[in-house]
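INTERNAL TRANSFER SHEET
From: sequence group
To: structure group
Subject: Exodeoxyribonuclease III

Please process the attached sequence and return the structure record in the designated field. Keep the field labels unchanged so the import script can parse them.
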Amino acid sequence: MARKKTLKLATFNVNGIGTRLPNLLAWLAHEAPDIVALQELKATDAAFPAAELEAAGYGAIWHGQRAWNGVALLGRGVEPVESRRGLPGDPDDAQSRYIEAAVHGIIVGALYLPNGNPQPGPKFDYKLAWMQRLHRHAKSLVDLAHPAALVGDFNVIPTDNDVYDAKAWKKDALIQPEVREAYVALLKQGWTDALAEVFDDEQVFTFWDHFRQHAERDRGLRIDHLLLNPVLAERIESVGVDRWVRLEPRASDHAPTWAELRV
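Return from structure group:
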């Protein structure tokens, strides 16, 4: 058997893994990604569908939470080797938003960054504080001598080009100057935003809300990001968004976002 030449790393906010499991399994069967970060499981650890994913060919680790949040990492044909559960820096933070593992030779941090709405207020303050904690931990990953990635739903619209109508979103937490500045500061550590790197000024979205046929009209946001450290960024072959998943019945409001990387 010929050795596989590329590896597909993907992130997908499923917006409820119980409800969206058929969509997830259909996408896995069709696209066969090698590494998948999932967000918004909205399920307890006991309710995570490990058996169904194993039957589909994926090993998994997960960090669940009843009705809210929840993250997971899947490995095609392998069991992810967990290295961290929860973002360091706040021992009182009980929200399930970060999990990290070695999968197919890559250290992957899977994250679901806080939304921060309404702003200003406590939820926005939590978002900014979480981003500061992420910066501190990300610095320990970006300089590694082996491949590392931070992937997931960042709940950050990096530029006005990453939203169908910036004026309509000007009061939202995802677009505030402090949030954008924090994201830029993260990139300045040495991370490459894979979609921005390849698509440049071309508009590409990863999220479309369920109102006014926004998905069908392609009125979306780019908030799901794949950040690669320098070792891994050199291996980018292609990147993309599987928008067809968002257009399926009973779909999540996000679409899987991926990068194909040379092995």
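Handover comment: The domain at 6-262 is CATH 3.60.10.10 (Deoxyribonuclease I; Chain A). The chain has one domain: 6-262.
Transfer complete.
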